Structure formats: C-alpha cells, structure tokens
Amino acid sequence: MTGTFDFNNDSHRRYNPLTDSWVLVSPHRTQRPWQGQQEKTSAGGLPAYDATCYLCPGNTRATGPINPKYESTFVFVNDYAAVKVDQPPYEQADGEDGLRARLLQVQGTRGTCFVICFSPKHNVTLPLMSVPEIENVLDTWTVLYNKMKTETAFRYLQIFENKGAVMGCSNPHPHCQAWCTESLPSEPAKEFTSLRFYKAKHGTCLLCDYVMLEQQDPVRIVVQNESFIALVPFWAVWPFETLVLAKSHTASLVDFSPKQKSDLADVIQKLTIRYDNLFETSFPYSMGLHQAPINPVEDESQLSHFHMHFYPPLLRGATVRKFLVGFEMLGEPQRDLTAEQAAQRIRAVEEVHYLLK
C-alpha cells in the first residue's frame, strides 16, 4: 500500500523504555460506537464534616482509635495494613528443592502501612486545595520518608493515592496511603533495571534525556513550570495517563529545594484541575510516587529521578471506563487515543476548577 504513514490514523506500537514493554496504539478505533458498561458518576455535595467518616477529625475509626481534631494533615498506621512489622521469618522446608523450589518461590516480607489524610475537610480533593495546602501534603510525605529512612531497615516507601470509587477507594475523605516494605516492589525494580541499562549504554539518565526531548517538541506536555513538567508519555497505556517529572536530576522528596516543593504543588494542582474539568467530574485515578529507595543499594541513589505516575481509567466521558481485557491481558496493552491527542485535550481545558467558575 502506498501513501504516508499517519500516526493519528494508522495502528502502531510504542516502546516504553522505563519498563521495557510495548503498547499497541489503534487511533482509528476512536470512532467506534460504545454500547459497553457505563459507570455511575460520583455524587457531589459532600459535607465538610461527616460524622460517619472514619477519617474525619474527632471521629472513631473502625478498630476503635479516635482521630485527633487535626487541622492540616494527619498520618496514622493503617488499621488494616497489607504487611506486618512483627511476623516470623519464612523458612524453606527441608527437601524443598528441584522443580518445587524453582517454580514455587516464596519470600516472607515485612513492613508497615500508613494512611495520610490530606485535609480535615471531608469534601475537598487535591484540585480543590490551594498550593500551600498541597505543599503541606508534600511536607508530610517528606517527614514520613525521612522517618522510615532513619528509623527502619525497610527498603522502599511507596506513596500512592486511589481517587474515586471506580478505583477501589472506599472513603471519599481526601487521603492517600504509604506502604513501606523490606523488599523493592516490582514496578520500581523494573524501572531501576531500565535506568541502569540506559545509563550503561548511553552514559546519561533516561528520564533527564526524556525531559529534554519532550521540551524540544511540546506536543505531549500538559503543564510545566521551572522545576516540573507534566505530560502524557509517548508510551502511555491509559487514555489520559500522565507522568510528572522533575526537570533536574533529583532523587527524592528529601532532596527538594523550597522552590521545587512549591513548583511540584503547583503542577499537581494544575494537572488535577484539568483532569476534573475534562469531563466536569471528580476525575478518578491511581497516582504514585517513584523515587529513591529509603535504604538504597548499589547505584540506586544515583539512578533515581523523582517522578509521579497518574493512571486515570476514564475513556470517553465521566461514565465510560477503560478496561484492560482480551488482547491487552493476553497480548500487550492497547489504546485508541494517541498520547498527542490526549495531551491536547487535557491541555485545552481551563485551569479554573469547574466547580469554582
């Protein structure tokens, strides 16, 4: 067939150098009619205080503790932690070798989990918070990172937020979680493998180079300031996935200058406002920080380049969700909207939250 290849109409694969994986892009499928599942939109009009909420100030949690009447952020050990601090070590049974040891591998893992409330107000989310209020959240993350680094021998602190019931969040009070484990989780481990390979081959940081490349042609950039850039990555899987990157090679929260902290809060606010404005709904997502391990080994401190992943599930509107099924589960991830088209749509919406217009 003759003609010129069209990235906006012709199917192609894009490589993700961070995880050494590929995504199939099928932009011609955006025109197909949708008769699939539609999600219910989240109910609005939440009160500033909810007497039945386990996370509101002064309330009793499910297991009995009473929250202080906090006025900013509030951190506590998760009442239903996914990992335990105190448990016996796993010991391989005698004679557990051969195929069993090769194919049925087990590692015991210890750790601790935290819940971090962003605000005492039950009815706000990050896009409805001020930049100073978001800075308070960053300060709280930094204090926790330092505490785990100096007081434990655990390896990694994974800070993440599941926003919205569609992402499995059971409580709308603004909060995130932090899981601290003695093992390095699989996703950061994949990234370190790729960062190490790239550095050995090219002598530079993969993410430093990527920031430089994206700034040369800003078609995928959503918002940026002096210290941070938010963009739809070239290899994005989720329709409106974004990546927030430090413009300088900064390893972790504890390495931020006051200017960087303020700039990160600014980018988070502007990005999440655009998310909400895109479909005029409280936009659901899973968000997580990737940074230097709290107890790094080998070259991990030098390789680390702070970044945040935002994975939102919405596809065509507030009620249509993207699912990974079929070919995506058995072959490789696939998307219809190109990264460039997604970035243009997020970038085009206003910076003023639709609820505050």
Short description:
This protein has 357 residues and is an alpha+beta fold. The chain is built from 8 helices and 14 strands.
Our Rg estimate from Cα atoms comes to 21 Å
Strand/helix succession: EEEHEHEEHHEEEHEHEEEHEH
Query: Total strand count, please?
Result: 14
Number of structural domains: 2
CATH fold label of the largest domain: HIT family, subunit A
Distance between the termini: 50 Å
Strand order of the largest sheet: 3-4-6-5-10-11-9-8-7
Structural class: alpha+beta
Given the structure, what is the number of helices? Answer: 8
Low-confidence stretches: 33-39
Assigned CATH superfamily of the largest domain: HIT-like
Rough shape? globular
Nearest-integer average pLDDT: 91
